[in-house]
């Protein structure tokens, strides 16, 4: 009996110990979960606070940039306005600069790098067109039938250099300067055409005036030094095409973050057309011409209408008695 009682007591104590351990483990697990939840909450709170501080710093930086640009614009206005500084020409040159360009004043900080890269891309393409003239000249030197390519290379250099600057680079510069949706759309339309020109120049079809890959392989068969020179120019045209595609995607991504849209572009176009003095003068002249012609037609119609005739039926009858 004593052994049975002692065994039952031992088993009872062991069960109590296990139950207490389970309760302790359960309480420990609850404590661990609460601590981990608190840690996660504290971490999320810290991340949210850091994000808010980052946004606040960014807003403060943008505000400081706007204040700085406003001060610079005021100082320039006090100095009798901004003077054109591009292209940089000597003071005694008979023709002065045509455009004003200053990235630090006109372009916001977050867009300055992109606009500068596009400016350097335009310069890179201009240098490539200049080298293309010498490549076509060397090709014409070894093959007298390539005079058309040499003449077209000069034409492309004289045509594409100013047109690319005015038609897609300046609209891009103005779009980022004034956040203009209409200028963005002008840039996209012209730049797609410019990319097509880059691809054609890299291909280098014969009698098109470009030292592309097809023309380079043709020139390589006649002269190895001239062919190598043309291959280098073809590689430059290819690099222009690839960089243009990459920058097109980059500018399009920035365009989507600026809040520009097709509706805003239409509104800007309509506002610009209505505020244009030439358009206003033409509309006023058209309206006055229309009014004058309408009055003349009405006057002629009144003169050409027949006069009323008085017959027996129109005679005055005496009043009845």
Automatic annotation (TrEMBL):
Residue numbers spanned by region Disordered: 298-321
Subcellular location as annotated: Membrane
TM spans (from-to): 119-142, 154-172, 184-204, 224-248
Topology within the bilayer: Multi-pass membrane protein
GO CC annotation, single: trans-Golgi network membrane
Pfam family, one: SCAMP
GO biological processes: protein transport
Keywords linked to the UniProt accession: Coiled coil, Membrane, Transmembrane, Transmembrane helix, Transport
Tagged with keyword Kinase: no
Main location: membrane
Coiled-coil region list: 42-79
Family membership: Belongs to the SCAMP family.
Record's protein name: Secretory carrier-associated membrane protein
Organism from which the protein derives: Anser cygnoides (Swan goose)
